[in-house]
Amino acid sequence: MFLSVFDLFKIGIGPSSSHTMGPMVAARRFLHLLRDGDWPRPSGSQVARLQVSLHGSLAFTGKGHASDKAICLGLMGLEPATMDPDAVDEVLNQLEQEKRLSAAGFPDWRFDPEADLIFDYEKALPGHVNGMTFCAFDAADVLLLRKVYYSIGGGFVVDEIEIQEDATPKDQGADTVPYPFASAADMLDMAKTSGLSIAQMKRANEVATRAEGEVAKGIGDIWSVMKECVDRGLAQRGELPGGLQVKRRAADIRDRLDEKWRQNDPGPLAANDWLSVYAMAVNEENAAGGRVVTAPTNGAAGVIPAVLSYYQRFHPAVSPADIETFFLTAAAIGGIIKHRASISGAEVGCQGEVGSASAMAAAGLAAIMGATPQQVENAAEIALEHHLGMTCDPVAGLVQVPCIERNALGAVKAVTAASLALHGTGKHFVPLDACIETMRQTGADMHGNYKETSQGGLAVNVPVSLVDC
């Protein structure tokens, strides 16, 4: 099994990797299929109009997660990694006024978001809870092409054939990398046999498919975007979009922490406070539709940058090599979790998002603090174990409550898990593989109301006036 660090850590925009980035990617795929793909085109027919329907979790929480906007942006030719978040309103206003798609390099097609973007709350698609149907019609409204895509978490998108074949990026290059560990047990066995750390094995896998300089630069770029997201989140104030009237808090908290620092009186909770505010800064940016990195998802994007920012603040000697070690180790753990269970809140609840992020961060932190492979695996297991059963119940379908604070707590658990593991020998009672399998089973048993549909939990038990405001 091989899942690249650059598959798990993808640059994009908020608020959701599965509900925002995924639909945007799917829309672009459909554009390219229409223009360049091999599909049966009736003689003389021309595409005149497109229509898109969202199903399952995408329908129930699509408005709150900006899935509708993402579809429109994707059909206008934009992609998550390169688009300017500040240009979103201009692009959407143009489409709303013209009701025509005008993506650079593609033909113009009619698309009225009000009529041609459908939220289908009744029909779930068979392949996954995050399903989308794209249709192309001719001028006489005869259907020319129908294509189904699924957003399976973390920004990954597959079509209806690929999902049946399980042809996700997790299997790419598995026969060409030197350490294709598919489980934590495999990983530890390979580390013992090779004498390498988890990060060294992961780096060897990466350079088997790309230049070593490309790996270093790519990880540096990921960390740079994460830091920019933290800094922007710590500087922004005001109310988050969506109608819940949730106010950004990170900037005000940072100001109070800075004042205590200047007075040389940080207080006994300083480390915990900074850890939390870094996570909140990222997820407030995510909720506002800013530029973030999936880590491994947008909903859990704050945990990993918070832990690494916290470590840099309280241990300034951290080196570029440490940064690489952190991300490579975290990606090794995240790849195993995605391969053996899920990182999607719509599949397994928030245990698969913040739980996975916390396990990845705990592993990365333990690694740069000198942990053995066994201690790294222990750190990941502790963090994941104490997120088991966590539901995904976003109020009003927005990635705000409880998501923002939940990232702060995930970061705290990650640091605690790394500390506990470093105080041990690496021997422990519950193997990481058993914990991952438990998460998978728990997610399978979890009622759909608690898996990113906003039909259970906090989403139905907060005051109605908040949801309706």
Can you walk me through this structure?
The chain is an alpha+beta fold and 469 residues long. The chain folds into two domains: 16-169, D-3-phosphoglycerate dehydrogenase, domain 3 (60s Ribosomal Protein L30, Chain: A, 2-Layer Sandwich), CATH 3.30.1330.90; 170-468, no CATH class. Helices cover 52% and strands 10% of the residues. The protein contains 21 helices and nine strands. The strands form three sheets. The protein has a five-stranded mixed beta sheet with strand order 5-2-6-7-8. A two-stranded antiparallel ribbon has the order 1-9. A two-stranded antiparallel ribbon has the order 3-4. The longest helix is centred in the middle third of the chain and has 24 residues, at 212-235. It starts with a helix and ends with a helix. The mean pLDDT is 94.
Topology:
Blueprint: H1 5-8, E1 11-13, H2 17-36, E2 49-56, H3 57-60, H4 67-75, H5 88-98, E3 100-101, E4 109-110, H6 113-116, E5 117-120, E6 130-137, E7 143-153, E8 156-159, H7 160-165, H8 184-194, H9 198-207, H10 212-235, H11 250-262, H12 270-287, E9 291-293, H13 303-314, H14 320-340, H15 345-348, H16 354-368, H17 373-385, H18 403-422, H19 432-445, H20 458-461, H21 464-468
Helix pairs in contact: 2-4, 9-14, 10-12, 10-14, 11-12, 12-13, 12-18, 13-16, 13-18, 14-16, 16-17, 16-18, 17-18, 17-19
